[in-house]
Amino acid sequence: MASTIVNVPSNVGAVKGLDCQSFVGLRPLTNVRSLNCVRTSIKASPPRRFAVRASEQRDAPARKLGMSDAECEAAVVAGNVPDAPPVPPKAAAPAGTPVVPSLPLNRRPRRNRKSPALRASFQETTLSPANFVYPLFIHEGEEDTPIGAMPGCYRLGWRHGLVEEVSKARDVGVNSIVLFPKFQMTPTGDEAYNDNGLVPRTIQLLKDKFPDLVIYTDVALDPYSSDGHDGIVREDGVIMNDETVHQLCKQAVSQSDWGEDVICITYESWGGAIRAALDAEGFHDVSIMSYTAKYASSFYGPFREALDSNPRFGDKKTYQMNPANFREALVEAHEDESEGADILLVKPGLPYLDIIRLLRDNSSLPVAAYQVSGEYSMIKAGGVLKMIDEEKVMMESLMCLRRAGADIILTYFALQAAKCLCGEKR
């Protein structure tokens, strides 16, 4: 056996006393006769003790003794101690490392980072497929059409490709989607509230196949407007706000007829009219996610290519927020809360982490972040060019959005990220 039994003679009898001022720490004492601070009678030490020496065979498998619990205990009492695990060797420092005394550091944060198990124990932010909302592009055709500026994304045929993609997402725990349609456009966006249009038919199909699927739909005119703006545009280029809101109310009611769960209001000045329209038709349970802090960003380019929704003239800076503004987001948030919003969204996501945190700290409503097409495409491009590790950057970016305060994340990475979280091997 690798264990060794060592006899340790004891020459200390009953301890009568101890001079507390003479000794500090655990100095070995013999023939102690006095005790000034505590008077206690102590029985004599046992006549022998044993010490266990670790086995020299580090990788040897554990060997069962074939003994009962009682027999094992008896063997230990008799001094037949089994081998202890091998002592790990102390890591050697590089040659030339200076020998210095330990610094008097009461707190060394790396103690809680030294192993994967410890890091997982103290992780403050978690990421789950349930946090993702999967944006999906749909069209009337049968075939899935790739989107050049967004590798891995397609305009999905609503009857087949869409159903297959939703099934894949549900298999890895993503059960929320948002739909973006692509079809012919008109100046007033009348197709937006066609009860037999692409979006209502798609909602009906998906709810029939997946009753518990959470469906978000975009209530906006830009995918339907031939001008590419979020509202009806006057001849002089001015967006007609009240007329636009009238159309959006009809669109929201039309889509809710077929069972959508959440409508996403991308237009900034809806004044509670959409909530009132839904309630008037009995759709009290349909939630509203307002694009509260939607910035006039340059990160939307690939999305506009996917839907062919680039503005035909002018830009959107007259009704979307200035990227230089911070406090304005609070004004928009307070307004949306008073108008009946159930969720506040920040768009884009990663470049606006400070805005996500601002809303999180100032509102009790759920906060959403949209990791928009430009963010997605940049990570994809960097991965293709081998400039970054696509998977690691993807997961880090999503974790950062959660850490900033986002409860849910609209991301084109939803399926890919959920597969990573589920440990699926590629």
From TrEMBL:
Catalytic reactions of this protein: 2 5-aminolevulinate = porphobilinogen + 2 H2O + H(+)
GO BP terms in the entry: chlorophyll biosynthetic process; protoporphyrinogen IX biosynthetic process
Biased composition (Low complexity): 92-106
Biased composition (Basic residues): 107-116
Pathway(s) where this gene product acts: Porphyrin-containing compound metabolism; protoporphyrin-IX biosynthesis; coproporphyrinogen-III from 5-aminolevulinate: step 1/4
Pfam families with a match to the protein in the record: ALAD
Subunit structure: Homooctamer.
Record-stated family: Belongs to the ALAD family.
Job description of the protein: Catalyzes an early step in the biosynthesis of tetrapyrroles. Binds two molecules of 5-aminolevulinate per subunit, each at a distinct site, and catalyzes their condensation to form porphobilinogen.
Name of the protein: Delta-aminolevulinic acid dehydratase
